[in-house]
Amino acid sequence: MDNRHYTIGQMAKLTNLPSQTLRYYDQIDLFKPIYTDPATNYRYYAESQLYLIDLIKSLRFVGTPLEKIKEIQHFSIEEMINYLNKQEETLANKLAQLQETQYTLRKTRKQMEEQLAIPVLNEVFTKHEESARLLCLTAPNATPEHVSNDEMRKLTETIENEGSVQTIRYGSYYPLKRYKQIEDIQYTQIFIPILTSKLFHVQNEAMNIVTMPEGKYIEMAFIYTSAQYIQMYEKLWQYIQINDLHVEEVVWESIMPMSFSTNVEEKILVELKVRLLD
Hints:
The protein is an alpha+beta fold. It has seven helices and eleven strands. Helix content is 38%, strand content 23%. It has an eight-stranded antiparallel beta sheet, covered by helices on one side. Strands 1-3-2 form a three-stranded antiparallel beta sheet. A hairpin with a 6-residue loop joins strand 2 (35-36) and strand 3. The longest helix has 40 residues, at 77-116. The radius of gyration is 31 Å and the shape is elongated. It comes from Kurthia gibsonii.
């Protein structure tokens, strides 16, 4: 036997593949030995076959099925290049999707961390907020006491159709002014924060994308009840007036659940935020 031929055990070591895998490749006619001894049934491989196993391993590494590899083995160089170009494009898309998933996870985690970092409830505090992209919907008659499920569904469907997911937060914004009762507050728009870094294509005329500006904010956080809402809003309003603060005349409202268990009494955390202008 030529010394450039290898037993199945030797080939297994050279290729870093189990002997069982080489036998299986032989059975399915993917990678056959150059010679099989009829007396002993021992398989022997040629050194020149090593590049074929390299090709198989490379294609398996990028997820190519064995049946497809059998087909590819008969490709011309041009056909092989075209196939690899398509594989590269597929992998690039998968990588982008994984990166987008990672981005979404980080944003969701950050929302939860921010909720834990609220320094005090029922008292005014200041906080630096990063800018946030918001998918907004003009919702007539939406108030702190009632937002239509149909309107929220429109936002959720748009988020999901764009390949993202709904966040644990939602909210609204409305004019900063004196309100005597909660019924007087009418939302300018309701929103869901956009967790994805991708561009959004909004088709609905009632929807648009608004950016909540980065900056220092005067804030109030509390557990929602109708009475508590207007009381905490008034406290925030008075704080701004008494301290003669120069602020943006917009209230950004953020709403988050306090827990995610159906066995716990539902409590909703509300944050009211007003941006300082100096």
